[in-house]
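Need MarR family transcriptional regulator's 3D structure for a figure. Predict it.
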Amino acid sequence: MPLRARQDLLSRTALGVFRLNGQFLAVSEELARPAGLTAAWWQVLGAVLREPLPVAGIARAMGITRQSVQRIADLLAAKGLAEYVPNPAHRRAKLLRPTEAGREAIGRITPGHASLATRLAEELGDAAFAETVRVLNRLTKALDAVAEPRTDA
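Structure prediction for MarR family transcriptional regulator:
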């Protein structure tokens, strides 16, 4: 494939992902608002629902800066939606976990989230929906791989 065609594919992929990001942010804000959350608060709380994580771990999982997560985590803690607990693996890097109020807020999002998931599955079809997840994961891994410093340069 000619270089120009590859550049076009990269540009079209990036623009599509940027648009998709904007769409997901708008939908997430709508889903989170009735629970008294923002999309960013929901994202951080969602990252620690299964297990407490340090702020740096949340940032890595979300692909954003540690400082952004720290600001949101501090707000969530101040509002009683999350709390910091000791980290047995690192004295200074506390773990963030949701409080019961945080879990309840996330629970209020669940019906709208389930409805959106159902509508998307109906629009795409279950197989195509699952394939979309696989393709996005592949793209993420590929970008991670090409972003690593090259040893052959």
